[in-house]
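Hey, can you fold this one?
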Amino acid sequence: MGVDEEKTNTCGTICLKYLLFTFNLVFWLAGGAVAAVGIWTLVDKSEYISLLASSAYSAAAYVLILAGFIVVATGILGCCATIREHRGFLIVYFVLLLCIFLLEITAGALAYVYYQELSDELKVNLKETMVNKYEQPGQEDVTLAINNLHQDLKCCGSNNFSDWRDGEWIKTRAGERVVPDSCCKTPSDLCGRRDHPSNIYNVEGGCINKLEEFLLQHLKILGGVGIGLAFVQVVGMIFTCCLYQNLKEDPY
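Sure. Predicted structure:
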């Protein structure tokens, strides 16, 4: 009877080891993918971040990048703990899994919360940021972001091109222009003197709608990846607990 029980335990331990080892390989690859998603989110049109009043968007991406790199390191530790059947390493591995779980839930929650607030933030802050900071001293990042925003999204102004009639830019930097040159369909020096639709981008909703759509798409990806991988880790934690219970106590 004792022999049968020992064989059952040994068989169960071997199965758990293979399951956890396989999970760690997948987990390691997933960690690299998560970090890549976070980096892509920051790099892809990263200049637009300077137009946002809140840092929640970049914070969610940074948390996801941090979690991704920790996942890679944790996956290696998990493989070593599984192969060596070391209970101490398994405890450390479990704690790291729990920390990563909390990080990814945080990233997902940040993305979700900011997803709800993004539209209101853009409506309140984007116009003021554009007309008051464009081409102003020390605001080179904002100026570049606005120029790229106009050209990449083919729009002009926050709500429409008439937004440029207000603010510091029209008073101090515009000269003969009524809109920035980057609003022009074919940008050239002082082309912004004409705001006729044949010359400039004049889309309904201005840049707000297009920027909101762009950022919401990224936030969906950030939130989905963070929360999705977090719940996958629950499986890893369950495997780790089961293997820990099946291993014999170290006599030393």
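The chain has six helices and no strands. Let me know if you want another pass with a different chain boundary.
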